[in-house]
Design a protein that fits this description.
CATH superfamily: ABC-type transport auxiliary lipoprotein component
Low-confidence stretches: 1-5
Strand order of the largest sheet: 1-2-3-4-5
CATH topology: Rossmann fold
Number of helices: 9
Number of domains: 1
Shape: elongated
Oligomer: single chain
Helix content: 40-55%
Largest sheet: 5 strands, mixed
Distance between the termini: 66 Å
Length: 273
């Protein structure tokens, strides 16, 4: 009897260990290797550290536990004339970010992909402020429960500052060679000094975004807000005797737009729920 009981306990223990291992395997986040030949080197570590600081981070919205009104995001406007920005972004890109973040903040979002060609009719009605056309479109299916229509506009995207600093050792190297009197030591010092090249470049962008909340039934504006954020892009390089070191990076335009959307959604979540 005792032997059978011990066998039973052993079987139960193995089962519990297996279940625990299975549970931890299910709950663990996916992890991926790095096949880059430079993985683990100093250049890889620096590049990954910069990428980590620019990676997507979820925002803890103040009223996330409170369900917001049902809404639709329509494509906004990009009023900046900056070619670098307008070539990279379309209003639909910004609306996609907005749908994602509003859903994270517990707003029921009727996504544009589920509306098909109706999106164009809805956008036209609310951009023109035509309540009759708005009511007509909002009587269809799931649209009946919609309380708000939102749009996000880029009002500003410009590089407001750029600063450059550098050192070219060629002139100093020539002087050392001259004052060295033609000696071997003077020539060597001139060669080393002349090989030194350093440079730093920093550019700062300012990007501003506005949101508008419109009543789904009347097309009247319920609220609006505006935020702008700075984006810094920089590069540094050093070269001495053929040995070079350099880095380039900063927050990209995609990340900047997403952070602006997150900032505005936080504002909407905290003020208008």
């Amino acid at each position: 009897m005792s032997q059978r009981f011990d066998t039973f306990k052993t079987a139960v223990g193995i089962t519990l260990v297996a279940l625990a291992a299975f549970g931890s395997a299910v709950q663990a986040q996916p992890s991926f290797g790095n096949p880059s030949p430079t993985a683990g080197t100093s250049t890889s570590d620096k590049a990954n550290a910069a990428a980590d600081s620019a990676a997507y981070k979820e925002v803890e919205y103040t009223n996330k536990n409170k369900r917001g009104p049902a809404l639709i995001v329509i494509p906004g406007e990009i009023k900046s004339n900056n070619a670098n920005f307008t070539q990279r972004f379309l209003p639909n890109n910004i609306a996609d970010f907005a749908e994602l973040e509003l859903s994270q903040a517990n707003f029921p979002v009727l996504e544009r992909t589920n509306l098909g060609p109706l999106v164009n009719e809805i956008s036209l009605a609310y951009n023109l402020g035509d309540p009759q056309a708005a009511r007509k479109t909002m009587q269809m299916g799931k649209l009946k429960t919609t309380k708000w229509v939102l749009k996000f506009d880029i009002l500003k995207a410009e590089q407001i500052a750029e600063n450059k600093k550098g050192f070219d050792g060629r002139a100093v190297g020539s002087l050392l060679s001259i004052f060295g009197g033609g000696s071997l030591a003077g020539h060597a010092a001139g060669t080393v000094a002349g090989s030194v090249q350093t440079g730093d470049t920093t550019g700062v962008w300012l990007i501003g975004m506005r949101y508008k909340i419109m009543d789904a039934n009347t097309t009247e504006q319920v609220a609006q807000g505006y935020k702008d954020l700075k984006m810094e892009v920089g590069a540094t390089s050093t070269s001495v005797m053929g040995v070079s070191d350099g880095a380039k990076g900063g927050v990209g335009l995609d990340t900047m737009v997403q952070r602006l959307v997150q900032t505005l959604v936080w504002d909407i979540d905290s003020k208008y729920k």
